[in-house]
Amino acid sequence: MNYISTRGRATKVRAGQAIIQGIAPDGGLYVPESFPNIANNLGDLINLPYNELAFEILKLYLTDYSSAELKSATNGAYSYPNNFYEPSIAPLKESGGLYFLELFHGRTHAFKDIALSILPYLLTTALNKERPGEKTIILVATSGDTGKAALESFAGIDGVTIVVVYPEDGVSDMQKLQMLTQEGDNTHVIGIRGNFDDAQTGVKGIFNNEALKEAMKKNNQAFSSANSINIGRLLPQIVYYVYAYAQLAEKNIIKIGDPVDFNVPTGNFGNILAGYYAKKMGLPINKLICASNQNNILFDFLRTGTYDSNRRFYTTMSPSMDILISSNLERLLFHIAADKGDTNHVQCGDLINSLMVDLQTKGEYNFPYPMGDFYASYATEEETRTALADSYSNAYVIDTHTAVGFNACKKYQMEKGSNLPHIVVSTASPFKFASDVYAAISGKPVEEGSGPFYYTNLLADKTGLEIPNGLRGLDEKSIRHTSICDPCDMLASIEKILQ
Ligand SMILES: *Cc1c(COP(=O)(O)O)cnc(C)c1O
Fold first, then answer.
1. Quick check: CB of 228 below 6 Å from ligand 1?
2. Nearest CA to ligand 1 atom 14
3. Tens digits of per-residue pLDDT, 199-225?
4. pLDDT tens-place string over residues 395-406
5. Using alpha carbons only, what angle is made at residue 492 by residues 112 and 172, rounded to the nearest 5 degrees?
6. Is the Cβ atom of 316 under 6 angstroms away from ligand 1?
7. Cα–Cα nearest to 285, from 253, 260, 265, 254
8. What residue ranges define each of the domains in the chain, with the CATH number in brackets?
9. Is the pTM of this model over 0.90?
């Protein structure tokens, strides 16, 4: 399996090379040349533990990794109680006639742990083979959860330095504290005075800064990415779609081959794109429901084909979805264009290139093809609060992001009348966003300045749930990272770290 760039101008590479590079040299994102098919052997994938399923799926994509290398990665990453607090890694829970795929039982309690617990294995294996001795600098822009998950997974890894850039006022108190207390000599955290899009644009600019890359090359250094622009983040996420489906089949809720709907709280479009990949591989998915918060650019896009970023940016209670420029959408557009049949990869790349130029110069583009695999919906803050309370009244506590999905589900079922099994991808522990969750289910307003732990305790008392390990005791850890800068000074801050 080779990987080609969405901009059509980079030479094709092996998986390991794509993972090391993070972003393609033509500025595009790497995508698999084709999709392996699992439709005919779905039955063999039922009843497998998570690590074994991950091996079966990933070997189809990571064909330049040996079986032993992949086994060591999947066994190392998906292990209980080392990296996950739940033996099944990603349990499926039923509530109110819906299924919730809980992806938040990893070390940092958000779904990012699933891919980021395996990425260090995939990256270091590839580095040893492709570029022995090179020092990798992982540069990450985060809307809150990726940052901590990446810090946690790369802390202490030889030959790797990790730098996380986050919007100073755009993450929850808990997310910030998780990052600022990160230990490990190879970890760096920088707050910027701006939003996530500023952080992500800055990081992409640094990746494409030729002068800087040349200077680094002389020091045997190179950048890589732990954001979902890295194909090594995306591929491991396919696994849990198959795993959710397998759990429904195991419980005899569906027969192999029956269609299901997946509902995904979406920001950068990485999670839901992995669902699209699963569908392309033959997993019987009817619709992928793309749930946005008040930043509803994807809702407008999927319904009209016009992606218009000239709009207000909202700071919401689901901060990991406060995004106007969804990086991974570029991959979807490429695949849809490629499926049109009358275009080759270079022509598709040219189309994507022109759309991205439009986005940069005009802030918008028009995509000419339909996107029928998706249903789009969004939640206002009020609707998110209602969804939190509704789920709580079904005796199931969800986080603010998952609540956006829950709201989309009600709208979808009302609008489409679908009664297929509906799986909501549950992306974070409610304790990560305890103040908003507690406020919504108790009907009391959030008291400003009360600090994150006040609410984790209240939430635990009210729901009878335990505060997850990694979040407990965080208030006793010391703050280790205090850098803050303007977006325009990001490059200088990073150059300082590189020396
Ligand atoms: C990252 C994140 C999302 C959005 O996922 P994307 O892959 O960026 O679309 C949703 N919920 C939570 C809790 C997240 O951390």
1. yes
2. 320
3. 999 998 999 899 999 999 999 999 999
4. 999 999 999 999
5. 35
6. no
7. 260
8. 92-109+234-469 (3.40.50.1100)
9. yes
